[in-house]
Amino acid sequence: MDQPLELYDVTIIGGGPAGMYSAFYSGMRDMKTKLIEARDQLGGRMLFYPEKMIWDVGGVTPTLCADLIKQLEQQARTFEPTLVFEQQIEGFERQPDGTIILTSSTGEKHWTRTVIMAIGYGIYKMAKLEIEGADRFEVTNLHYTVQELEPFRGKKVLISGGGDSAVDWANELEPLAEQVTVVHRRERFGGLERNVLRMKESSVDVRTPYAVETLHSTNGEVIEQVTITHIETGESELLDVDAIIVNHGMKSDFGPIRDWGLDLGEWHVSVSEKLHTNIPGVFAAGDFVNYGSKLHLIAGTFTDAALAVNSAKLYMDPEADKVAYVSSHNSRFKEKNKALGVVEE
Ligand SMILES: Cc1cc2nc3c(=O)[nH]c(=O)nc-3n(C[C@H](O)[C@H](O)[C@H](O)COP(=O)(O)OP(=O)(O)OC[C@H]3O[C@@H](n4cnc5c(N)ncnc54)[C@H](O)[C@@H]3O)c2cc1C
To answer: Which cofactor(s) does the record list (predicted)?
Structure first.
């Protein structure tokens, strides 16, 4: 027999900064909270640039993105929300009593009074290298993200791509790799002009318009050489490599959420200034939303999250306070402050 479902006050879909801060703020409002993330970890799109320094979040002095994710996660866990990983939410079903059942890709059901959609641009997938059999090298020396620079020290690194990420990684790896080669199918690069210039003026070997055509491996485990081909002349060249980084951009989509009846454009849902969507009990926050003054940045996700949580609270209890009591005077933090060794008057 199926386990009876447990009813939550709020279910947050998405574990990026908007979802993580919603989980924290929802705890401040005493709501029974669940957060569901399709990936196996929190961070959202911040996981695409863990090695980058973040300068533009208020009150945060230059901090590695990976460390900022850790801090956001620690904050999100403050009130011990239920966290569910590796489930993509697909189905939405309104119950006769007004509550909602969400169904995930695994078939699991989640019962909730309200929903906060913090899904960014949906489910992200790295655009893969379109070479048959390339996926078998993903466990060795074919990379789609760079988590750490150190493993590339003294290596011959080939980067395929011409956007921001390709240019940034070329510049970051150039001082420590033995050789960095960038292969791009167009003459023009999409990265910031000064970064493109820096790359071209450095020792980076820039090959345009070229594409990676064949991966060569004698043991079938590690790529040792790569054939690159000139897009116009068809001329080929064989290069020795120790590692390949592929930055062909991202593909993302909302999946079956498109059919929920949300007022959804190509990439954003329309919301009111209090972050209500057009579906009662469903609120939204972060990059997924659009409204007049929306800031599609990490900092912008925090205000959205607080507003969406407050709207969810008022949806459940129209008599509730309009906002949470500030943390400096909120009794919910008394014990937690004590644990931090803070002596309060
Ligand atoms: C390369 C790069 C560099 C950036 N640099 C900066 C910077 O320096 N400063 C700054 O302020 N901003 C920066 N940004 C923007 C910033 O990352 C975004 O504004 C922020 O991540 C948006 O947060 P979010 O929580 O709204 O969405 P996301 O971070 O996109 O998170 C959404 C989450 O929802 C999950 N999800 C989606 N659909 C479902 C579903 N159906 N079920 C379950 N889970 C689902 C996704 O897996 C994802 O984890 C950068 C972005 C990129 C790509």
So the answer is: FAD
What is the arithmetic mean of pLDDT over 29-52? 94
**Bond preceding residue 62 cis, omega within 30 of 0:** no
CB count within 10 Å of CB 164 equals: 17
Closest by CA to 212, choosing from 157, 149, 155, is 157
Provide Rg for the chain, Cα atoms. 23
According to DSSP, residue 49 is labeled -
Mutate-to-test residue for ligand 1 from 298, 303, 304, highest number of ligand atoms within 8 A of CB: 298
Instruction: Please state the pTM of the whole predicted model.
Output: 0.81
* DSSP assigned state of 125: E
45 lines ligand 1 (CB under 6 A): yes
Q: Which CATH superfamily is domain 7-124+251-339 in?
A: FAD/NAD(P)-binding domain (3.50.50.60)
Counting from 1 in the atom list of ligand 1, the atom nearest the Cα of 39 is: 47
CATH label, 128-246, candidates 3.20.20.70, 3.40.190.80, 3.50.50.60, 3.40.640.10: 3.50.50.60
Atom of ligand 1 nearest to the CA of 46: 17
pLDDT at 192: 81
For range 311-336, the mean pLDDT: 91
Over residues 165-213, the pLDDT tens digits come to: 899 999 999 999 999 999 999 999 987 899 999 999 999 999 999 999 9
Query: Which one, of 242, 221, 305, 297, lies nearest residue 271 by Cα?
Result: 305
Strands 100-104 and 89-94: antiparallel
Q: Give, using CA atoms, the residue closest to atom 26 of ligand 1.
A: 286
The whole-number pLDDT of residue 345 equals: 67
3-state DSSP percent of the chain in helix, strand and coil, to 5: 30, 25, 45
Q: Where in the chain is the domain with CATH 3.50.50.60?
A: 7-124+251-339, 128-246
pLDDT band for position 7 (cuts 50, 70, 90): very high
212 lines ligand 1 (CB under 6 A): no
Mean pLDDT of the chain: 95
| Residues of the chain above pLDDT 90, percent | 86
